[in-house]
Amino acid sequence: MRFIHTADWQLGMTRYFLNGEAQPRYSAARRDAVAALKELAAGAGAEFVVVAGDVFEHNQLAPREVSQSLEAMRAIGVPVYLLPGNHDPLDASSVYTSPLFVAECPDNVTVLDRSGVHVVRPGVELVAAPWTSKAPCADPVASVLDDLPADGTARIVVGHGGVDIFVPDKDRPSLIRLAALEAAIARGAVHYAALGDKHSRMQVGSTGRIWYSGSPEVTNYDDIETDPGHVLVVDLDEAHPDAPVQVQPHTVGRWRFVTLRRSVDNSRDIADLDLNLDLMPDKDRTVVRIGLTGSLTVTDKAALDACLDKYARLFAALTVWDKQSDIAVTPADGEFDNLGIGGFAAAAVDELVAAARSDGDDADAARSALALLLRLADRGVA
Predict the structure, then answer these.
(1) Class of domain 2-251 (CATH, top level)
(2) Which of 37, 128, 156, 350 has the fewest CB atoms within 10 Å, counting from its CB?
(3) Residue limits of the Calcineurin-like phosphoesterase domain (predicted)?
């Protein structure tokens, strides 16, 4: 038996830092990652797809988002099983019970809307642990494991949440206890655990049977999400479910969220940054966050600002990471001697230079004014 394990589609997700027209493209890319499962399922011969929670970003979605998402699921062609997670729990406002979802849900889509066993077909079962609120008071998976027999049925647990070995707060009620899962696997009652919540692909424990698939499209920067953009094709020997499970990742994501850290102390460093940004491919699908440190003259700082402005127009988003940035700007000796101005204007420039070199409250404003003056002078305005 072969199936696809995926999770954390979070359809309808918005990212506040995206440029205006990039957000619709990003939303479409998340749906495209879902629709791409049609070709993967057909090529791999996958019998069904399990989505281990957070199918939607939240329960209050625009009708258009719900309809387009369901159409993407319809296109997959094979049965698709959806588990409600912490973003889209089965509470009173659940998207899964909304009139629109119920009316337009394709025949190949099933919501795992109750805890316990769901029969895929004779000999194959899904053991679901849906979230019914955003704050479960107990491990959502442990309760569905207790009464499972070791009777040769191939069983796949579908769960969502953090596993206790990965978090310092061991007392959090919603944590999935790894020991309980591994015990069910050891006694032959469970043969694979398809988990969601972590957005990076990750094996859990040492059995080779417990996995996070990660999100099929990136949701955060690469220093936070180390391995997103995948779905897992899982081979489970139905005749001998205790035989080793084969798990093969497939890349479906197309976007990148990149974190860069650079030291910039002169014009050469700025040129290197410009070159590195220029060489990055697929700028319209790439988000860049830059942490910048160093000490620059006003002239070089103006050049840096011009560089960043240029690439902010080319990338889906480019932002300076304020918490990881610290650039000291100090006017160099003679930096403003050749502007071709005199009289009161020259005296004003001297005052700005003195203010920019001080530690006073007006230093930042003076540096900004000098940078603007340099830009205007370069354009022949001043």
Answers:
(1) alpha beta
(2) 350
(3) 1-162
> Taking the model in full, what pTM does it have?
0.87
Residue extents of the structural domains in the chain: 2-251, 256-380
| pLDDT number for residue 344 | 61
Query: Mind listing the pLDDT tens digit for each residue in 129-139?
Result: 999 998 888 88
In this structure, the dihedral spanned by the alpha carbons of residues 35, 39, 40 and 41, taken in order and rounded to 10 degrees, is 90
Q: What pLDDT digit, counting tens, does each position of 139-193 carry?
A: 889 989 988 999 999 999 999 999 998 877 777 888 999 999 999 999 999 999 9
